[in-house]
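To assess whether the prediction recovers the assembly geometry, we first specified each molecular entity separately, as shown.
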Amino acid sequence: VRTRHEAVSIDSQRKTVKIHNLDKNTFEDLSYDKLILSPGAAPVLPPIEGIHLPGVHTLRNLQDTDKLYALARSGIKRAVVAGGGFIGLEVAENFARLGLETTVIQRDRQVLGFLDADLANIVHREIRKAGVNLILGDSITGLAQSDLLTRSAQGALISGLAQGALISGLAQGAQGQLNLSLSSGKTLDAEMVVFGIGVHPEVVLAQTANIQLGTTGAILVDEHMRTSVPDIYAVGDAIEVRHLVSGAKAHIPLAGPANRQGRIAADHICGIGSRFGGVLGTAILRVFGKTAASTGLGLRALEKAGIPFESVTIHPANHAGYFPGAEGMTLRLYFDPASGKILGAQGVGGAGVDKRIDILSMAIRGGMTVDDLEAAELCYAPPYGSAKDPVNMLGFVGAGLRSGTQPQITNFRLGKSPDTSAIQLVDVRSPGEHANGHIPGSVSIPVDELRERLAELDPAKPVVAYCQVGMRGNVAVRILLQKGFRVQNLSGGYASWEQLFGG
Amino acid sequence: VRTRHEAVSIDSQRKTVKIHNLDKNTFEDLSYDKLILSPGAAPVLPPIEGIHLPGVHTLRNLQDTDKLYALARSGIKRAVVAGGGFIGLEVAENFARLGLETTVIQRDRQVLGFLDADLANIVHREIRKAGVNLILGDSITGLAQSDLLTRSAQGALISGLAQGALISGLAQGAQGQLNLSLSSGKTLDAEMVVFGIGVHPEVVLAQTANIQLGTTGAILVDEHMRTSVPDIYAVGDAIEVRHLVSGAKAHIPLAGPANRQGRIAADHICGIGSRFGGVLGTAILRVFGKTAASTGLGLRALEKAGIPFESVTIHPANHAGYFPGAEGMTLRLYFDPASGKILGAQGVGGAGVDKRIDILSMAIRGGMTVDDLEAAELCYAPPYGSAKDPVNMLGFVGAGLRSGTQPQITNFRLGKSPDTSAIQLVDVRSPGEHANGHIPGSVSIPVDELRERLAELDPAKPVVAYCQVGMRGNVAVRILLQKGFRVQNLSGGYASWEQLFGG
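The predicted structure of the complete assembly is given in tokenized form:
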């Protein structure tokens, strides 16, 4: 193990790597039989003015973490995090917990791009509830050093402390103040800015050996992790992988697959023919009190890939509701309408989200269908689940959609202001629930009155029924189907509509 | 919905059911087109003397629970629970939490028969740590009413309270005292005894229609839940099912499959051809601070079914060890040596056992193998798991066993006092760990010294290496294999040996 040494170039003809001893500033050639590249990925910095100012940081390794932690506790007041992905949100949460005024700026209209917009909104509310200033649809276009003292330094000046104390305060805490310009025209001040807007694969060393890159710009490898150059392998965040659902090439830096790739490269070098099949992109993040997780593909990725899909959404509790401590979640399942095969799943909520996404990840890998989810036999005792686990419920609702017994429409397809000239929108909840908030244009007919009030509906006009989470809506759909109506249930009910379009 | 009515007989020719109105004591015939039997299963009471005495109880429904709860809080001191299954242990835990002196008597040498003996031992320790008196390998052979006052009543007498207070105390709290005789010859006193020694399917009503029973004594049904009599279906705890791993007929009363069976019967009646495939027996129980769970088959069931198997055992944490709050568990995987297909899994420990057993249940249903577990892509962030999740680790260890790169032996096969004339037993932990407890006959050669101390081993004699949990033992096995030794690693290490044979 050579620490403080950098591999600077590869001679694949002579099979040597040139090594730079960073302490002695000497160079040396090391020969190899087999070479494994595992250089990882580096944080992306945007090419904007002021990006190299002191006070601008990224987070890649333990040393960066230690530095950010020390800075956050050095007396500064305000931090800005650019980027609402894993790194950005984890940094922001830690800053907020350390008492900093924290702002997150995200270029997209949502954080955590692997989530659908409505599930991301749950995360937005959680972030804002924790006091973080979340700015969406905006980005930093430039940074400038300010001559202003930091607030703490100003405070020290105003309170008339001795010059020595002020200087000490500046030296310890004040990192200088940065003025940030945003693409919206807004400006922000902060003592520290962390960029967590993404990573790019480290390919410079690979390119010295003319190793072929893939279409994503990451290193191209085969299923044994071999690059285009004989006896050179590559693994981890620097390589291009195949997405197991879409089949498309992708750059998906994740710890689990990276570890697996290392094992497969080692296997192949040792004569064992293990193969790397691809990546599902299973990912999870804790954001304050919530968990956000996903496996396979979500709405935007499915649309982009042109894959036919249907989805169902439920809002279950993690375990039996009568057992103390049940926590809620929103779960969504994507599947192929023709075969029923599972294409993706995502969830946001309290305890138990990780378990359901893991079960569904396993189901995708096993090529399983919504019918298999119906039949899944999962641990049930009141502290752990329900006799009908959320995974079973996804199967029930999905199989009903596929078979036609439970026609459904998503919140995305219904839209914020449904066209009630084309459909009849029926709120089958109680009048009280309706009065507390409903979808514009909907009429209130509680499900228990529906059979008696059928005359209020036009049999010639399609109906969309909804309740709070989808259960009563499903009963209403069954009643109306039997009466000859064309009808759909709003999957996930008013809760899902409100998650997508609510304030 | 007819409450307080009992269905007493079926006339399958006339397609009627005779109904007894329990309040009015009248009878009536109800006709049916399709009939679904869902009578459940009833607690087994052993045919012993005194079984019908007051103070002897069972637990089947909510009313029983309310009654037991009221009795437990009525001032009695001592309760005995017969049976160490789900019901028995849940009742015992609740009694103990309510402050009763609680004894559990279990005929088998272990509680929770779906667990292997070593994993059951973890549960035994947890039960005893909570102050419950756990008696294994014994059973109640008779009960007798005692004339003695209860301890509380004795106390009241001794402390010289007025007669009125004593009578009141007896009326409220004292249920009379029971003297229990055990098959060991021991005796026990208690104010309350609960029998939770198993259930039998309720088949009396079915038998009035000459419905065929299966070999287990439960109602025989086909994959659409049809009984042997036309237009009569049966579902739930009264029916016989097929075990999905063994293929054998079994009576496995579980809430999840029962619910599923109800849906399938309804589907078939409505013209939908849903099929019930069988049961994996996925089950879970919280026992004080521990979780015990299982899916598929365990050691005794595999041996009984004559199914070839291998197993691996690990002792992982539920999430990254560097993240606060990690909890340990013991996980075991059974698989088919030829195909690698998963046959069963079980786990006992803290948080996260339910998640892993659910993932493995899904893997069994999907016909997946240990190789699929290696490749499983599960949610990883430090609060939820590890980049190498326990499920992946089971895959790594299992695949190494199958491929021959990681030969292993189980604690069961090694035995309590290994024959060191036949094998060399090497403890590759540190000398300090060895001194704190080791397997009899083992020599201490720390793994880091193994290459230098090979001369201490006889190359002609098979070696079993072990460490604490299996990691260092695996390194030792790799070293010794390369040096030409015949060697096996003790799966699960000293921890698993101690769980099986320790005090």
